[in-house]
Every structure is written in C-alpha cells, then in structure tokens.
C-alpha cells in the first residue's frame, strides 16, 4: 500500500514547524483511518460488505473515490448528494458503501449474525507539538467514549493513528476497555493495524 495514499504530507504552520522533521507534517485524516480499517476487516474477517459513514468534512479532506479506485473498487451506485457517496464493488466480491451520515458508526461490518462497529479519529502522526499530540490523545478518549454511549451491539473498536503516544495511552486503557467490551486498534502509515488487545500487527 502506498504511503502517500493514506498520509497527506504538508508544510507545517510556522508555530508547529519546529516540532516536525524539516517542517513537514504527516497527516492521517479521519477518512484515511476509516478506509484503512474497512480494508483490514475485508482482509481479516469473513465480511464482504463494509459500510463507512463519514461526515462532510471527512469527504473534503480525504479522497475516498481515488483511494478506493487504487484498491480495485469501482462505483456502482450513488448514495446521497456527495460525489463520493455510493456503493463500490471489487472484482473479488468485496463491497464498500460510503453513506455520509452520523450516528451509525464510522465503520460497520456484519460478520455472520454479529456486527463490528468502529469509531475513528485522525491526526498528525509525526509531530512533537503538544497541542497536536493532545489532539491524538483526546481522539482516542473520544472514540472510546462514543462507543460506551453507543447502542450498537457486537464488537466495538476504537481506531486511531499509531504513534508512540497513542500506543502508550492505549495500553494503559486496555484493562478498563476490556471490561467494557471495547477493543483498541491503531493504524500505522502503511495501513497496518496494531491490535493493542493482542499486541500484534495485523496486515
């Protein structure tokens, strides 16, 4: 998987430039996290149909159509009024439906009679800027909180970008999240999933 497919590389604002190498930030937008986790579920479970529910901002910041095309998906139907909403099909039988809406879970899959529901957040993955590091922390906490408040049954997964700081926080959260039935998965820049519950990388 192409590194630049999931990461937006951009010059940092002046106030953050000293906190990244060569003043360049690597941004993993929330839409990229959603797509990476959707692909992970297609590869590692028996699910053949995944639903992604981005809001309007996610669609503006991440190229769902182009990224899906690079993975062999062709748009077959449209959903809603956005250019990217719709059902995408792959020749191997996989389907991804992008339905811009809220309150349905960012990424949802049905595996047999069970449902997997994931909440996702993005962020800048190579920065030492305290505000951006804090945003990643808060993103993980928010995804866990949303899952705790959710009425979805089945597996619930909080998904955020992998950084040293999110990994440390996730490991501290694991005992309480396990008690609540919530899993934590971290996405690295290659789209690989680090399953914190099992401390393993799953491609």
From TrEMBL:
It comes from the Bacteria. This is Uncharacterized protein. It comes from Acetobacter persici.
């Amino acid at each position: 998987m192409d590194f630049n497919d999931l990461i937006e590389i951009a010059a940092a604002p002046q106030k953050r430039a000293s906190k990244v190498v060569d003043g360049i930030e690597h941004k993993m937008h929330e839409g990229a996290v959603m797509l990476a986790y959707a692909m992970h579920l297609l590869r590692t479970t028996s699910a053949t149909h995944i639903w992604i529910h981005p809001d309007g901002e996610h669609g503006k910041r991440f190229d769902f159509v182009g990224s899906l095309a690079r993975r062999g998906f062709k748009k077959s139907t449209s959903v809603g009024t956005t250019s990217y909403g719709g059902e995408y099909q792959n020749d191997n039988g996989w389907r991804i439906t992008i339905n811009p809406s809220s309150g349905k879970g960012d990424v949802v899959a049905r595996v047999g009679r069970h449902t997997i529901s994931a909440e996702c957040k993005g962020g800048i993955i190579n920065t030492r800027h305290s505000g951006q590091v804090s945003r990643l922390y808060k993103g993980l906490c928010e995804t866990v909180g949303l899952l705790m408040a959710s009425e979805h049954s089945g597996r619930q997964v909080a998904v955020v970008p992998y950084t040293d700081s999110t990994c440390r926080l996730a490991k501290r959260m694991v005992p309480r999240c396990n008690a609540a039935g919530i899993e934590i998965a971290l996405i690295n820049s290659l789209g690989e999933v680090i399953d914190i519950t099992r401390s393993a990388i799953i491609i």
